Structures
1.
Amino acid sequence: MADRKIIAVTGATGAQGGGLVRAILADPDGGFAVRAITRDVDSDKAKALARAGAEVVAGNVDDEASLAKALAGAHGAYFVTFFWGHLSPEKEAAEARNMARAAKTAGITHAIWSTLEDTRRWVPLSDNRMPTLMGKYKVPHFDAKGESNHFFTDDGVPTTFLLTSFYWDNLIHFGMGPKKGPDGKLAITLPMGEKRLSGIAAEDIGRCAYGIFKGGAEFVGKTVGIAGEHVTGSEMAAALGRALGQEVRYNAVTPAQYRGFGFPGADDLGNMFQFYADFEDYFTGARPLSVARKLNPALQTFAQWAAANKDRIPFS
Ligand SMILES: NC(=O)c1ccc[n+]([C@@H]2O[C@H](COP(=O)([O-])OP(=O)(O)OC[C@H]3O[C@@H](n4cnc5c(N)ncnc54)[C@H](OP(=O)(O)O)[C@@H]3O)[C@@H](O)[C@H]2O)c1
C-alpha cells in the first residue's frame, strides 16, 4: 500500500467515480490505491466500497477545507460535480472552484476534471436557435463545467480535462428508457433527427479515467474526449429492440418539443441535444472512439451495453 500512488475520487459512490474506484481495485498490481471521498462514510454504498478494498474518507465538495483534508497525501484526484443534485450552474462552478483550490492545497500531482463544453463558444447568447436559460446559459450543465476549467489552470493544478458524453445508463436511471406510445409500441424519444449522439456506458468513464492516471504526465494539460460509440436514435432503437427481444421504435421529436416536456431540466436537456445535433461533427470529432478504446480496452458499444443491461432497463 505504502508504495502505491493514491487516487482520491469524488463521487465515488456514484456513476463516474464508482467506475474509477472499481477500475483501480480490479488492478491490484497497477501501482495505484484508491481513496473514496463521500459525505457519509457510514452509508451502505460507502461501506460496500470499504469492503471491496477502498480507503473511504469523509469530504464534501461544498466545503473546500474538508476536501483538502480528504485529498492530503494523494497523488491523483478525480473531480466530478453534481449538477443534477441541485440544478444550479453557480453551485456547480463553486464546487469546481473548491476542487481546484483543494487540489492546489494538497499538492495533487495529477487531477482529472470531468468537464464538458461551454456551449456558448458555439452558440452565443445572441443566437436564437435555442433559448437562453437562467439568464446567461445555453446548456447550463455543460456551460458551468466548461466555464470552470479555468479554476484548475488559474491555480496551476496539473490537470487533464476529460470531456465525457451521454450516459447510456440514462435509459435506466433518468427516465429515458423505452415507453409505449398510443400505438402500443415501445419507443425511445430523442430530439436528434438522424444525427449521431456520442454516448458511453457510465462505467467506462471511470475505466478511461484510470487509463489517464496510468498514462500520467503525457495527459497533464491535455483535453481528452471519450465516447463508447456515436449512434443515431434509429440505431439505438434497433439495438435496444434486439436486446429486449421486442420492437423498439425511435420517436424523433424536435428540440422545442423536448424542452416543453416539463420535467426539471427538460429545457437544459433539449438545448443539450440540439447542441449535440447541430454540432455533430465537432462533438463526435472531439471524442474519437480510438482514444477511449486505447485508454480502456473493455470499452462497450451501445449494443454491448444494451445486451448486458437488458434486465435493468425499465420499459412500460
Ligand atoms: N447523465 C449523463 O448522461 C451525464 C453525462 C456526462 C456528464 N454528466 C455529469 O455527471 C455529473 C454527475 O456524476 P455522476 O453521474 O457520477 O453522479 P452520481 O452517480 O449522481 O453520483 C453522485 C455522487 O456524488 C456524491 N456527492 C453529491 N454531492 C456531494 C457533495 N456535496 N460532496 C461530496 N460528494 C457529493 C454522492 O456521494 P455521497 O452521497 O456518498 O456523498 C453521490 O454518490 C453531473 O454533473 C452531470 O452533469 C452526466
2.
Amino acid sequence: MKQANANEKSIEGMLDQQETLLIVDDEAAIRRVLCQKLSREGYQCEEADAAEQTLNTLATSPIALVILDIKMPGKSGIELLPEIKSGYPDTAVIMATAVTDINVAIQCLKQGADDYICKPFNLEEVSLAVQRALEKRRLKLELREYQQFLEEKIEEQTGEIRKIFLGAIEALVTALEAKDKYTGGHSRRVTEIALALGNELGLSAQDMEDLRWGSLLHDIGKIAIDQAIQNKPTRLTPEEYEHIMIHAHVGADIVRPVVNGKIAEMIEHHHDHYNGSGLHQVIVGNNIPLGARILAVADAFDAMISDRPYRSAMSITEAIDEIKRCAGTQFDPDVVAAFLKTAETATT
Ligand SMILES: [Fe+2]
C-alpha cells in the first residue's frame, strides 16, 4: 500500500502533526480562494491542478485531506477518487462539484468520498465540511491505534502466560528427573544436542525455538508411567515397553493446550523410527516432523551414554557408531549426517 511509503509515520505521528490539505482544481482562482480561507484557519495547504500533480504530492507529502474537483481536463476527479482511496486510505476526500452534478457527487460518496461541496462555494460550509471530514479521519485513526494497542497487549499477555506455564512444566520435568538417578538432567542434555543438530541443519529461529521447547518437554509424559516399571533393574517385557512408550502420546496431550502444533507433534513422534518400524507408528520417513527426527537422535544418543537400571553406559565412540549404524532405519540419515558433523566438531 502506498500509504505506508508516503507517510512513514505511526498513527500517533499522523494524529499529532499539523494537518495538510491538498486543493485539487484546474482553476487557479478557485485554488487560491480555498487555500486562503483554509490557511487562515490554521491548515497547511498544498495545491494541484490535475491528476498527475495530485498523485505526486500524495506520494511525497503526508496529506490528511484532499478537496477534489470532479470536472478537470484529463483524468477527472471521479476517475482519480478510487486511486486515492486505494493508495492512501487514511486520506479523507471531499469532492467539489457544480450544483448540477449532485448525482455524480452522491456516486462519489458511495465510492469512498467523505463529503462533497458545491460550487459556487460558501466558504463557511467548506470550512465545516473540512472540519467534519478531518474529525471523522481522526476518530478512525484513533480507533485503529486503540485496536493495535489492544492486539499488542493481548499478544504480550498470552506470551507471558505461555512462558509461565511452560516454565512450570519445565520445572516439573526437572523435578521428575531429579527423582530418578538415571535420568537426571536428561532433558537439558537432549535439548543441547538437539539444538546443535538444528543449527547444523539450518533451522529458522522460530523452528529452533520450537525445537528447544519440544526437547525440554519431550519426556513430560513419563509422569504417567509406573515408577516400578521405569526403574526396573532388568530388561523390560514387551508389555512393559509398550506401557513406557505411551509417554510420547501422553506428553503431547499435556502440552498441546499451550504450545503450537509443531511442538506437540515433535513430542508425539519422538520415538518414531524413520523406516516406520517403531511401536504403533502411523507415519514414516520425512512425514515424521523434522523436530521429532532430530529429537530421536539426540534422545537416543544421551540415553546410550547414560547408565540405565538394566545396563551401564556405552562409551561415546560406541554410541556414535550405533547412531551411524541405525541411519536410514531408526534415524533420518540427514539428521545422522548432521549429528556426525557436530560430534566430529565436539571431539576435535
Ligand atoms: Fe522419550
